């Protein structure tokens, strides 16, 4: 059988244009692809799920849902990052990234070494579909065939994982960032293979700041250095996204300095809470109330938890250590957060230190007077609060680093107001 006859058969089988199939077939055979494999690949390309071994139907990326267990899909590899995971007791190197076509983008995990690189256009036959964080995701495994296409698929997405810190979200993989190391400390932790040294701290760029962990300490990562990091991933740690730099990441010292913005982005409360946690954010809203557990409080000397009536939840009967704290409800019309102010900011609002608070409490024979005084000063006014926002099932807490009357910063107030309207 000659090429023309093969093409004719295939074209009538698939119900597509004869000339197109012939040209594709010629290309494949020119690249020494055996005729049967070439025909199989074209069946997948033109979406015949019934023939060629009953593989799943060819699908656009944008149409993949978790209603099907497997698909055949052609797409451009945007990112491909190696990572080591422990699976059923042994270490396994996987490749994670994103695949796109003209209709959308999907995350994938490759369990086999298919040799994927950013920019490749592939057809993945019989790729598994699983649900991850409510979204479909592709699993390229043993039963998946990966064919590399010669013509790059044009996609409306950038190839490569370049990102600003402000755009990173939990779950992102194979990202590339250019950052300045704002804070960095070496720590010893109990890892899965015993004690191990890691680096942790804070990265910054023009867009914002995020905490990081470097699991395999890289000498280029030290306070004050500017580095380019390829193939990092983002996971949640204590309610905010954290950049993870692994042994598979590439860290390069840069010869330019990355500027770190001094201000945090201003967001509406709803926007900030919906994002699931923000490392450094400014909110502007009305201070509705001061909550219980504010003012003069006592902490456990062992674990620093707040003790009530001399009882620590972990350590029982303890001699509490006095401290000052404010837990305030801030509302901007789109939502509420509990702003938590530590000793220094609370002392500033209260207008006195712990000794003053003790004395006032002794005179009144009630330590609640300290919280009452704080409430008198701040409830009913509008403030700009900046800090780490974490969100859990009990609500949203802002660990406050800056607290100021919103009139102090009319620009921030206007921005927040406009963003509130847009939201
Ligand atoms: Zn305790």
UniProtKB/TrEMBL annotation:
Keywords: DNA-binding. GO terms for molecular function: DNA binding. The keyword DNA-binding applies. InterPro entries: NA-bd_OB-fold, SOSS-B. The keyword Cell division does not apply. NCBIfam families: PRK07218.1 (NF005554). This is Single-stranded DNA binding protein. It comes from Saliphagus infecundisoli.
């Amino acid at each position: 059988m000659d090429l023309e006859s093969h093409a004719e058969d295939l074209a009538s089988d698939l119900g597509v244009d004869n000339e197109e199939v012939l040209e594709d077939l010629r290309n494949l055979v020119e690249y020494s692809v055996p005729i049967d494999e070439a025909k199989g690949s074209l069946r997948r390309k033109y979406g015949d799920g019934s023939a060629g071994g009953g593989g799943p139907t060819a699908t656009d990326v944008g149409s993949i849902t978790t209603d099907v267990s497997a698909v055949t899909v052609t797409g451009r590899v945007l990112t491909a990052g190696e990572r080591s995971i422990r699976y059923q007791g042994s270490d396994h190197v996987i490749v994670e990234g994103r695949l796109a076509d003209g209709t959308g983008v999907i995350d994938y995990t490759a369990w086999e070494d298919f040799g994927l690189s950013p920019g490749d256009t592939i057809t993945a036959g019989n790729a598994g579909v699983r649900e991850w964080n409510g979204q479909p995701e592709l699993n390229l495994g043993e039963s998946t065939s990966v064919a590399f296409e010669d013509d790059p698929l044009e996609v409306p997405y950038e190839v490569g994982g370049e990102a600003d810190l402000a755009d990173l979200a939990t779950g992102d993989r194979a990202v590339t960032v250019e950052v300045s190391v704002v804070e960095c400390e070496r720590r010893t932790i109990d890892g899965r293979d015993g004690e191990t040294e890691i680096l942790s701290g804070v990265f910054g760029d023009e867009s914002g700041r995020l905490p990081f962990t470097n699991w395999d300490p890289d000498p280029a990562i030290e306070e004050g250095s500017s580095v380019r990091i390829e193939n990092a991933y983002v996971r949640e740690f204590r309610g905010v996204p954290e950049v993870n730099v692994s042994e598979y990441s590439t860290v390069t010292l840069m010869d330019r300095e990355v500027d770190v913005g001094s201000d945090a982005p201003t967001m509406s409360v709803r926007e900030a809470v919906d994002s699931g946690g923000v490392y450094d954010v400014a909110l502007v809203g009305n201070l509705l109330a001061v909550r219980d557990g504010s003012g003069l409080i006592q902490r456990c000397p062992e674990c620093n938890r707040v003790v009530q009536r001399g009882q620590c939840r972990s350590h029982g009967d303890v001699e509490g250590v006095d401290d000052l704290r404010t837990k305030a409800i801030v509302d901007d019309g789109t939502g509420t957060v509990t702003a938590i102010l530590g000793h220094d900011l609370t002392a500033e609002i209260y207008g006195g230190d712990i000794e003053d608070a003790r004395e006032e409490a002794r005179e009144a024979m009630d330590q609640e007077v300290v919280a009452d005084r704080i409430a008198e000063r701040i409830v009913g006014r509008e403030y700009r609060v900046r800090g780490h926002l974490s969100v859990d099932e009990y609500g949203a807490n802002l660990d406050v680093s800056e607290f100021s009357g919103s009139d102090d910063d009319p620009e921030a107030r206007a921005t927040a107001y406009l963003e509130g309207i847009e939201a």
